[in-house]
Specification:
With 317 residues, this protein is an alpha+beta fold. The chain contains 11 helices and 12 strands. The protein folds into 2 domains: 141 residues, PAS domain (Beta-Lactamase); 158 residues, Alpha-Beta Plaits (2-Layer Sandwich). The chain has a 5-stranded antiparallel sheet with strand order 2-1-5-4-3. α8 crosses α9 and α9 crosses α10.
């Protein structure tokens, strides 16, 4: 009677293993498969008759054998469970994702538990793998991370131009000021604004004015290096912080930008719209007590450009 109960109990356990919505794989110590449940059949396309007695690594050569065997052998040696999570390794088996999140995940994300199995004599002669489909959790987390990154980016950027906003740009300048104090590296600053911008707005309208601002920002980013910091200082005024750049190099950048803007022509409802910019260039010196002093020097040079007729670059003495 007791033996019959044990057999019945075994059938129940086999039914459970086949029915649960996780992958169950049992291997011997040579990594040959002995149990391959319906979850694994459905997602791999391999029936249990094909999988049984086959080498795991022959069926799935994409598995990193060196990494996986080390993980399993350590688990067996310590006699404890081991785990892999999707954040560290997206999956163990490259199964297609069939969850209703089309386009967000081509492959199934998996968490895996490695479970050493001891026989009645206390010897670990089998290992069980339990594979959890965590695609939904993984995609949701990555979507949230992406959204948060976009929000952080928006917080740093000016909405109209996509350039750095004033608060973030000034923090970059403050950082460069501290770096100059420590390493005595060259730092230059270019400030500029759009000439007669009010006249553009009054003549062509604010939408045209916004397009002039966006065009100026685009040309600025095209000419700047990846290490430069381009920002909108306010209204039609812009700044470009040039780390590790001497005054001569900053002046050359300013002139290239001025000429590029001067050559630009917008089409506003069939009417050509041209505009220019005036620029001021200054470099950070040891005599400056704070980063605001560099802004003041560049701003004075910009004011001088406007006083002397606009569409020109002035270098601060």
């Amino acid at each position: 009677m007791a033996a019959q109960f044990d057999i019945d109990e075994l059938h129940w356990l086999l039914d459970i293993v086949q029915s649960i919505d996780v992958g169950v794989v049992v291997m011997d110590r040579d990594y040959r498969i002995e149990v391959w449940n319906s979850f694994m059949e459905n997602h791999s396309g391999l029936g249990s008759t094909q999988a049984n007695e086959s080498s795991l690594f022959e069926l799935f050569p994409e598995i990193d054998q060196s990494w996986f065997t080390q993980k399993v052998e350590t688990s067996v040696m310590l006699g404890t469970r081991a785990f892999t999570i999707w954040e560290q390794r997206p999956n163990l088996f490259r199964f297609k994702s069939y969850q209703p999140i089309t386009g967000l995940a081509d492959e199934m994300y998996q968490n895996v538990t490695i479970l050493p199995l001891r026989s009645s004599n206390g010897k670990t002669d089998h290992v069980c793998l339990i594979i959890y489909d965590v695609t939904g959790v993984a995609v949701n987390k990555r979507q949230l991370e992406s959204a948060n990154n976009k929000l952080r980016e928006l917080a740093l950027r000016d909405g109209l131009t996509g350039l750095l906003n004033r608060r973030y740009w000034e923090s970059c300048l403050e950082h460069e000021f501290a770096r100059h104090q420590r390493y005595d590296n060259e730092v230059s600053l270019v400030m500029f604004d759009i000439d007669h911008f009010k006249k553009v707005n009054d003549t062509f309208g604010h939408q045209a004015g916004d397009e002039v601002i966006r065009t100026t920002a685009r040309l600025t980013e095209q000419l700047a290096r990846e290490t430069d910091f381009c920002g909108r200082y306010g209204g039609e005024e812009f700044v470009v912080l040039l780390p590790d750049t001497a005054l001569e190099g900053a002046q050359q950048f300013a002139e290239r930008l001025r000429q590029s803007v001067e050559r630009q022509q917008l089409d506003h409802q069939g009417t050509p719209l041209k505009f220019t910019i005036s620029l001021g260039v200054a470099r950070l010196t040891d005599a400056m007590e704070n980063y605001q002093a560099l802004i003041e020097q560049a701003d004075k040079a910009l004011y001088q450009s406007k006083e002397e007729g606009r569409n020109r670059t002035t270098v601060a003495e």
